[in-house]
């Protein structure tokens, strides 16, 4: 999907952005990369054009315009705005996106949304950190050069006049995102709803903090390996990532806000604060709270309270199911025979996620090797608790052999795989249906203009006057003809009704998949802990050892 990123710069040296666009730069330090002769290395694949300026004299022309209007002279003023459109890497193979096509779309987008500004439009084909995704840089001088016709997205009257600065308001940013989505839908490129709040919100700053932290961790791990010590962890986790993981783990087994708050504090030392209907979280190493809104919609009050309600209903249902099965089993068995286990097949038991964690291997814990008190008081005691929980877990669920535990894990794994396939198929159907709804609406919206075009005496002149409407109509008609077997236009009402059914089906499929996915993770933890209890090095038992008693 295409995403839009904005950077406001107070750097008065416009030549630096030109060098960044034209020459190789280190993505971590943002400094130019030099060859063995100390010279800048040109980028291998880029296309650059200028609007209302020459692309190679952009810096001088911007300074001349600033001097003419005596603007952008103080340090605190924003000198330029940098917009980046990053396309989905799949568009290159699936939708024929090339650098030339992306540059053309970037030029169209810049002319439409930043009229009157001196603009650099540059397309890079190598992607961020050599990821391979095509992206377009649009850099504008914050000062407008020409008077333009006032557009609907301009808040102030002066936003269309020369000598006034680019004003990015909240509504303007919404317009820019909507314009990008419309452009991608028109060009049949992958796109998501940029206006919908993110379930997991990761800012650009957090992303780079994670990248730098991972790089430092990798360097440290290389030193540890060189010293002959085992590596403790390989993945770096930011403070926000730690909060998200802790919230997800605590919320999935909580039935109320109080229970959720207690779990966060006891297990992760995270303090939950509720103020004016908002959840805020205090990381153990911070002095300032982080709001749920900064983490994503799945960490805010509305979503979590709804999840607690579902957990409470599931818990009540589990109690009723167990009571009913127990009553039926006792009524069917003779009085002189002992009652059978509650459930032979663990898969059929309603799964409620437990708080089981993996047993820590002392040989893998560098801190435990360096500190004997920490190894005894923290790691060993924690391991004893997890082993006790594991033994209680397998006894409660009637696992009497390693073989039965492994069979349950395999069965749940297969169910997780099949439920994931069902979810993916539903999402594919929903994507196709959304395209049909989009093009049907596009077809109907431009149908009247196309009728006028068909009745016009001078069709060439009429097409020149309404090129966008006619092109949109013809592309929508072509798409719908390819989708319909009988050539009939689908009904918007029926399509929306079908979409509601698919959305409901998708929600149910997500619940099913998440259910079996969490169940699989839990059984995997149980299997690993059992292997540690039995003194086995591998997570999975070899075939010749299957069938040995767990106890």
UniProtKB/TrEMBL annotation:
InterPro entries: Endonuclease_MobA/VirD2. It holds the Pfam family Relaxase. It comes from the Bacteria. Residues 47-146 form the MobA/VirD2-like nuclease domain. This is Relaxase/mobilization nuclease domain-containing protein. It comes from Sporofaciens musculi.
């Amino acid at each position: 999907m295409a995403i839009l990123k904005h950077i406001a710069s107070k750097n008065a040296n416009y030549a630096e952005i030109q060098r960044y666009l034209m020459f190789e730069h280190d993505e971590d330090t943002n400094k130019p990369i030099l060859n063995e002769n100390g010279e800048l290395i040109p980028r291998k694949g880029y296309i650059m054009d200028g609007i209302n300026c020459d692309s190679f004299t952009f810096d001088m022309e911007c300074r001349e315009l600033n001097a003419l209007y005596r603007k952008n002279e103080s340090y605190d003023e924003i000198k330029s705005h940098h917009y980046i459109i990053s396309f989905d890497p799949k568009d290159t193979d699936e939708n024929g996106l090339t650098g030339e096509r992306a540059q053309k779309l970037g030029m169209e987008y810049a002319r439409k949304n930043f009229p009157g500004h001196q603009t650099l439009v540059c397309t890079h084909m190598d992607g961020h950190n050599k990821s391979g995704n095509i992206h377009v840089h649009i850099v504008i001088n914050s000062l407008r050069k020409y008077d333009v016709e006032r557009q609907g997205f301009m808040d102030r009257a002066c936003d269309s006049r020369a000598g006034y600065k680019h004003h990015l308001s909240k509504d303007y940013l919404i317009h820019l995102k909507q314009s990008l989505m419309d452009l991608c839908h028109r060009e049949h490129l992958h796109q998501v709803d940029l206006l919908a709040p993110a379930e997991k919100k990761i800012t650009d700053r957090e992303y780079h903090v994670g990248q730098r932290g991972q790089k430092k961790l990798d360097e440290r791990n290389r030193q540890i390996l060189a010293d002959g010590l085992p590596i403790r962890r390989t993945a770096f986790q930011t403070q926000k990532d730690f909060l998200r993981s802790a919230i997800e783990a605590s919320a999935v087994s909580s039935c109320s806000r109080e229970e959720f708050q207690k779990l966060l504090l006891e297990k992760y030392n995270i303090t939950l604060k509720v103020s004016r209907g908002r959840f805020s979280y205090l990381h153990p190493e911070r002095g300032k709270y982080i709001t749920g809104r900064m983490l994503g919609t799945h960490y805010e009050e509305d979503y979590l309270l709804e999840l607690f309600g579902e957990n409470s209903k599931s818990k009540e249902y589990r109690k009723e199911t167990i009571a009913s099965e127990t009553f039926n089993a006792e009524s069917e068995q003779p009085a002189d025979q002992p009652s059978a286990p509650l459930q032979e097949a663990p898969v059929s038991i309603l799964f409620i996620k437990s708080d089981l964690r993996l047993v820590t291997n002392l040989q893998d814990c560098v801190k435990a090797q360096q500190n004997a008190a920490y190894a005894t008081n923290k790691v060993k005691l924690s391991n004893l608790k997890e082993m006790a929980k594991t033994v209680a877990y397998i006894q409660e669920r009637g696992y009497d052999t390693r073989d039965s535990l492994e069979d349950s894990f395999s069965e749940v794994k297969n169910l997780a795989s099949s439920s994931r396939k069902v979810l993916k198929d539903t999402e594919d159907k929903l994507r196709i249906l959304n395209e049909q709804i989009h093009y049907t609406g596009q077809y109907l919206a431009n149908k009247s203009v196309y009728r006028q075009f068909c009745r016009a005496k001078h069709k060439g002149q009429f097409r020149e006057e309404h090129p966008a409407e006619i092109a949109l109509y013809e592309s929508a008609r072509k798409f719908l003809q390819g989708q319909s077997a009988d050539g009939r236009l689908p009904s918007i009402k029926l399509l929306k009704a079908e979409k509601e059914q698919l959305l409901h089906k998708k929600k149910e499929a997500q619940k099913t998949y998440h259910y079996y996915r969490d169940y699989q993770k839990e059984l995997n933890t149980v299997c690993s802990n059992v292997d540690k209890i039995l003194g086995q090095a591998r997570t999975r038992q070899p075939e010749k050892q299957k069938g040995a008693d767990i106890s």
